[in-house]
From TrEMBL:
It comes from Kickxella alabastrina. It comes from the Eukaryota. This is ATP synthase d subunit.
């Protein structure tokens, strides 16, 4: 990873990201796995940079009687070069993850904005609502038109009381 990439990853405020995306466990888990993998790779890289990579061939020559083997191993070790690893596949995976995370974040933003709009509308309706003592029958019918049909059906059946009303609201006439 480039120095700019490392600097970017170290400046990310992970607790804030986790708290913002707390309702999206899949994204939070993916980000946590990415962060953990990055930190482990960074730790291994720093350990490798700090480690001593030289081999003391003289000590092996003193221990082993066949110094030709040590000479061959030393020659191989000296000709060995560090191989650069192609990171294209890992970068593609990271790009795909990033695209998925961006898509999920955009969806989350849209859902949140829709919820906020609904809540704002509800608050507006509550603020503009009249007290129940000021409601008229026409207001109730306008809000719930199915009440008229239900009432007409009950009258046609000859029922002038609502089922379950007396059980729910007992009559105080007996007192």
């Amino acid at each position: 990873m480039s120095a700019a990439g490392r600097k970017f990853l170290t400046t990310i405020n992970w607790p804030v990201i986790n708290s913002v995306l707390s309702k999206h466990t899949e994204i939070t888990a993916s980000l946590g796995a990415f962060r953990k993998g990055y930190e482990e790779a960074e730790r291994q890289l720093s350990q490798l940079k700090e480690s001593d990579r030289s081999v003391d061939f003289e000590s092996y020559r003193r221990i082993l009687k066949n110094s030709d083997i040590i000479d061959k191993l030393e020659k191989i070790a000296n000709t060995q070069k560090i191989v650069k690893v192609d990171l294209a596949d890992q970068l593609k995976t990271i790009s795909a993850f990033e695209a998925k995370a961006v898509t999920s974040a955009e969806l989350y933003v849209k859902e949140t904005e829709a919820n906020l709009a609904d809540l704002s509308e509800t608050v507006k309706n509550i603020d503009q609502a009249r007290p129940i003592t000021q409601l008229t029958v026409d207001d109730v019918v306008k809000a719930k038109p199915e009440i008229v049909q239900r009432t007409e059906d009950l009258v046609k059946q000859g029922k002038f009381t609502v089922d379950g009303y007396d059980e729910r609201f007992p009559s105080l006439a007996l007192l």
